[in-house]
Amino acid sequence: MTGCRISEIVGARIENIHWELRTIKVLGKGDKERLAPLSRKTIDSLRAYLGAFPHIAKSGPLFRAQLPEEQGGIQLQGQTWIAFYRENRTFPNDTVKRILRGKTVGMIGPRKRTGPKPNATITIAADLQRRGRSWPVIFRAVSHGVEMSPAQRHALQAAVYYLLPAR
Predict the structure, then answer these.
(1) Domain positions in the chain
(2) pLDDT tens digits, residue range 92-125?
């Protein structure tokens, strides 16, 4: 977050970023220059962006409409950075179609899980999984003397793996 207008960010230049001071000099309304603060997350995102495009020079526009070697770019959609490019695809009937390809290259915040909400069984199973218990032991602990069906066991495993943070 910088508090800048879109036009100020679009016109930003790499040489105007003061990495140590975490500020950027932008050209605002009425051609007035001002320093805008950059958060740590913004600095990290900018470094990741510049690292993903090593052919961007040490000076010049920070964001370019077109890069000389390729057609494409990077966009922030919600919390996700998406890199995209165009390519020609030839189909079996010899027709050529221009398509837009994209790939997620990073996120600006922690990933939010939107899957199954933990209930008591999932929470107990996840706790036992973190302690290194095997799945047969976990199934016996959460089913209380009742045999779980294969579908129930699979659903529980999927919910626990979804709940546990990635390593």
Answers:
(1) 6-107, 120-163
(2) 888 888 787 787 777 777 666 666 666 778 888 8
